[in-house]
Amino acid sequence: MSKTVQEGVYYKHNHRPGNSLSIAFLKIGKDSNADLVGNALKELWTMYSELKKGITLELKGLNENNLTHGNLTVLIGYGHEMFSIEGNKKTIPSDFDSHRKFDDPDRKGGGPVLDGSRLSYSHDIRLNHAASDHLILQFIGDNEFITNRAIVETWKLLSSLKRDYGDYSLVISRVYTGFRRQDNRGWLGFHDGVSNLATEERLGTVAIDSRGLSSQDNWIMNGTYLSFFRLEIYLDQWQKKKIEEQEKMIGRDKITGCPLIGIDNNGEPVKDIRCPVAGTLDIIERGNEVFRNNPIHGNQQYQPRNISDKELIFSHINRANPFPYSYRIFRQGFEYFEPVEYYPGFRTGLNFISFQNSPSKIFKIIKEGFSMDTIRGSSMNVLEDFFSVRSAGIFFVPPQTNGYLFPGEEMFFNTSANYHNPVRYLR
Description:
Structural class: alpha+beta
Order of helices and strands: EEHEHEHEHEHHEEEHEEHEE
Strand content: 15-25%
Helix content: 10-25%
Number of domains: 2
Distance between the termini: 29 Å
Number of helices: 8
Radius of gyration: 23 Å
Shape: globular
Number of strands: 13
């Protein structure tokens, strides 16, 4: 039986995400169970297969030339709580069970995402919904109409189930949206995703393989784990910093994206003079690949005279990548912009989404890469002073299995033929 990583994980060569993201978090309804949830997901997945052609139930029969599919992809993931519902046919994967949840926010708001980490919740966050939600649905497409329509169609179908069965099997608890910037930079102004994985390295980083799996966990092979962080960026505070200070905190030149190799006697950041290579303007252009992985600050050879990299040990690129290759993750980030009712009238941030074959990777990065201990003795600001977490969760993303209607079907039914209700959506 063929099992592949779900669409929505853009790991293949020249397989790039669309420009728009919508994320829906779902909870199961009161008195629901695996049978009801499974049938609801069966209906949803049938609807999504039509929606990816541009077809909606209300407009079925529309001329094909008027259909807009927008390269929609749909991905589903399951939280820890989904494995506790009545009638679930699978036990929680052991690796997922041993890495349960992020820490709860403080009752008054804020607090570390994990004990000992400098990565903290926003001051007004008292509940991290993503840690207890049962499901995550990721929609990626060419534009916001495509991804927002998927959310609306999801709500319509779940509402129709409410009318037919008298109770919600699933209910949308939260929706987030985001987009990809055309300039390949983030709200901080620096290049984003410069040191992400090479294409040939991605599948091995993302997909769960057979090593160490127990017999009861064999069904999760070629699945993955999705970690999600809704990060809030304090752009007003960031803008008050001089560009040179920003560069030292990031560890890169702001204009070119080239890595810094040190700081001179005048406190000015010094970048690698070989970067960018002749005929190019910045690090994302071909020929600059060798400079995309940051130097190991504190352990560089052949440092120029009067240049020290001691302070750059506390830079973001140095602290976020202190791990061996086996702990690499595959990132897919989408910026966001949303109005608020207080100054400056809007909030900016990043939907940080990563895929990895073990949840231990993201926990290790947060615990050690953003450790309080790693910044002791530094007089400079670090990047975490300028962003915080509004929600954080980790979800198991089952493989897409040939012959199964939706990923994770075996959690809800004994066999693919053991449905208690037929698909109604296309009737």
